Amino acid sequence: MSTIEQTLKLTRSEAEDLLFRQAEYLDSRDFNAWLDLFTDDGSYWIPHRPTDTDPETQMSFMFDDVPMMMARCERLLDPRTMGQLPPTRSSHVVSNVQVLGTNGDGELIVRSRFHVTQFRRDTLKFYAGAYTHHLVGSPDAVRIQRQRVDLIDCDGIHDTILQVYL
Amino acid sequence: MTVATSARDASGADLDPASLVEAERVHRRAYVDPEIFELEMDLIFGRSWIYVGHESQIPQAGDYFTTQVGRQPVIMTRHTDGQIYVLENRCPHKGALVCPERAGHSRPFVCMYHGWSFDGDGALRSVPARSGYEGTSFDPKDPANGLKQLPRVQNHRGFIFASLAADGPDFKTWAGKGLRGLDNLVDRAPAGEVEVIGDCYRTVQNNNWKIFLDNMSDGMHTSFVHNQMAKAAQKTIARTAVRRPGGLDVAAMLAGEPEQMARMDLVAHPGGHFDMVAFAPPPSGPDADQYKASMEAFHGKERAEAILKESYHSVLMFPTLVMQQSLQQMRVIRPISANKTLLEIWVFCLKGAPESFVRRAVTGGNVGNSPSNVVAADDFESYYRVHAGLESPQTDWVLLHRGARQDVPQGSSIKGGDGNSEVCMRNMFHAWRDYMTAQ
Lengths: 166, 439
Ligand code: FES
Ligand SMILES: [Fe+2]
Known about the structure:
The complex is a heterodimer.
Chain A: H1 12-27, H2 31-36, E1 38-47, E2 60-65, H3 66-77, E3 89-102, E4 108-120, E5 123-138, E6 141-151
Chain B: E1 7-8, E2 14-15, E3 25-27, H1 29-32, H2 34-43, E4 50-54, E5 63-69, E6 72-78, E7 84-88, E8 103-105, E9 109-110, E10 117-118, E11 124-126, E12 152-156, E13 159-163, H3 171-175, H4 180-187, E14 194-196, E15 201-205, H5 209-216, H6 219-225, H7 227-239, H8 248-251, H9 258-262, E16 266-268, E17 274-277, H10 286-299, H11 301-309, E18 312-317, E19 321-324, E20 329-337, E21 340-350, H12 355-369, H13 376-390, E22 397-399, E23 408-410, E24 413-415, H14 423-437
Antiparallel strand pairs in B: 1-2, 3-22, 4-13, 5-6, 5-8, 6-7, 9-10, 10-11, 12-13, 14-21, 15-21, 16-17, 16-24, 17-18, 18-19, 19-20, 20-21, 23-24
The structure holds FE2/S2 (inorganic) cluster and fe (ii) ion (FE2).
């Protein structure tokens, strides 16, 4: 658990630095560095429906706590994982970044839009939607407490199993 | 219903479905031939009992849910009489879908095209500008001119099945022993019923529906296809505590060597159905004790113990319903074409069980069956490879010999010699041949 000495403040461009870095870790398959961006009790949530509020009792498109993230990254990095033969390549574009302010828990909330293209075995797949990052720490050691990923087609039909984080 | 009775092979000769299934082999065309798929839609999906949905999806009068029974779009409705109806989702006027949404609430149903309206049991309620029909052969005042009910519908303990055929084996005869997994799921609810948690996931596999069904009883694949994920889960559990039970800890069990799966009881039932016993241990701790006590209060001690002793990892009610019963997950097959299969994936909660059981079911659903799951992600890769391999024209047969000399008859069912037997695949294809050749 991270201690919040003082409330985190970031400019838009500092917030962008973090989001761009996070995207770059995924696109270069540096999953361990990606994982280190999260606090020990952090979480990554893609709701199943746009109106969902509670990943503990509602079905999610994805809901990973840190142990689950560790296992998912471990799976992605094992060269014999069947679903990653061939591996997924991805390319993120993150935009429309807004620093919205601090919530009651002292978390800095940053909202942005993403467009992610993934490629695996001759097939391109597009994901689009919004990120909501809840950030803690200090400007030179920002950590993600929670990341919510709202896919525009979260409740649609999916003909690919999402393997690499968005 | 018009029933096609034959398909042609590439040379134009009649293709006899009976010739595609032998005692221990299946011809590749049974999986990949689009003409066979069309025949299946008529002869299997047009005749059998097809799972539609669960009554907890439509609790109030006016609630509805839409899906497919074979090629037929249907609406499952709750009428004002409290009963559930399964109607053709097709306006009797010019054929528009009356409910284009997946689910909702509507009383009455109104077709948006010209405003005809219908009751929850399909009865025609009103036709605007009725005078135009005077003297014609259409009677706008006859309720029977509404949305057609499917010929046969069965509500089994909240699970709604329907058949497009007016006659054929009744539900209980069709289900036979194949019903025991579903019944055990409901029996496990201390309040005597289950309900869906939220909406279903919908995923499409780019493979024939039977490649998926084969895999449901394929014990052997587990230690190969899921080995990396299971190792990843085990490694993680060794480094850090599992915070949400039902996910990582279950995934960690998939890495079993072939001998682990060999110990699982695998039983094939008449009609193509089967079940495989559960390998994940039941929940433990204070909540599990409280659950057990409420089960005993509801069923009595002896019966509760018998119910809890019985548990299945994998259940098939051929052709549409697959359950991972011990995880309270259900996958429903809605074939789209020979090489595309839509799955509706539902997670159930046991009414009356502690809230931690809901959390466990949700976690299991996320990890095992969501559109981002880490189990089927690897299964999909094998389905893709099998389907692509079977498209190749030079070699015909899929080999299902494993364990064929070790089958153990159990009444009208057959128990595999061990959990790696291909007995359930053979049994499924023998049922398939019966459907495809019955007159
Ligand atoms: S098509 Fe439905 S009212 Fe005309
Ligand atoms: Fe599998």
